[in-house]
């Protein structure tokens, strides 16, 4: 891929490196001018996942870690499409998610929030997009949780998404939120994004057409990789 194939980064679309209300940005803000590094040939053509690497239960977080029963919480379906800037489907993309459980706690040794660990919920899954760029996950709706930003800061319910391209070095990461969550407008991290349109593209809409009656509510979250309508990503050289 040449530089001419990449879309110029829109600096007005992305947050500034330092945001007063997001305390962690103090240590994450670069002190020197940014450098743009091109991918090497090995990074662009390196190994990637194939269909044989995906287990049938990898995208079912209700079952892929369960030992003694179903996970606790509101059962949901997350689905959508991975698209390019012209609305064309992107097939065979590895999509990964990870999230807190219904109480707002991650299965990680560094998470010390007082909400209990769910013994039947691992909190992560993966799948490959089909020929129409579609993906789907079954899971539980994650809970909000407090974090040490200010005295009373809470993260809205969210799911982390990772999308791999044709090599491991081509990885984009973002967070998806849920329609109607009042904590979205109060989140210091989300409020670093200067354009409300970019925030709207991170919010999954309730999809009653895909909801399973008496079972699971569905949410639709499309991921656009490039162009003026692209999804906001936490790490992105435009064009990947």
TrEMBL record:
It comes from the Bacteria. Keywords: Dioxygenase, Oxidoreductase. Residues 78-106 form the Intradiol ring-cleavage dioxygenases domain. The keyword Isomerase does not apply. The keyword Methyltransferase does not apply. One of its GO terms (molecular function) is protocatechuate 3,4-dioxygenase activity. PROSITE patterns: INTRADIOL_DIOXYGENAS (PS00083). InterPro entries: Intradiol_dOase_C, Intradiol_dOase_core, Intradiol_RC_Dioxygenase, PCDO_beta_N, Protocat_dOase_b. It holds the Pfam family PCDO_beta_N. Gene3D superfamilies: Aromatic compound dioxygenase. Its EC number is 1.13.11.3. Belongs to the intradiol ring-cleavage dioxygenase family. This is Protocatechuate 3,4-dioxygenase subunit beta.
């Amino acid at each position: 891929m040449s530089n001419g194939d990449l879309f110029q980064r829109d600096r007005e679309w992305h947050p500034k490196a330092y945001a007063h209300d997001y305390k962690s940005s103090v240590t994450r803000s670069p002190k020197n001018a940014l450098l743009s590094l091109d991918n090497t040939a090995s990074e662009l053509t390196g190994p990637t996942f194939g269909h044989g690497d995906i287990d049938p239960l990898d995208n079912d977080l209700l079952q892929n870690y369960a030992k003694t029963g179903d996970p606790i919480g509101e059962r949901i379906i997350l689905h959508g499409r991975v698209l390019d800037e012209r609305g064309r489907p992107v097939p065979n993309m590895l999509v990964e998610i990870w999230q807190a459980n219904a109480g707002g706690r991650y299965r990680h040794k560094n998470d010390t929030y007082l909400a209990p660990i769910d013994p039947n919920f691992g909190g992560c899954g993966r799948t490959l997009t089909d020929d129409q760029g579609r993906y789907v996950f079954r899971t539980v709706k994650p809970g909000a949780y407090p974090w040490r930003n200010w005295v009373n800061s809470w993260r809205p319910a969210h799911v982390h998404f990772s999308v791999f391209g044709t090599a491991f070095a081509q990885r984009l990461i973002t967070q998806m939120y849920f329609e109607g969550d009042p904590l979205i407008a109060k989140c210091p991290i989300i409020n670093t994004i200067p354009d409300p349109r970019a925030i709207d593209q991170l919010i999954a809409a309730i999809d009653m057409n895909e909801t399973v009656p008496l079972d699971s509510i569905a949410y639709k979250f499309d991921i656009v990789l490039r162009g003026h309508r692209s999804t906001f990503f936490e790490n992105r050289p435009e064009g990947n």
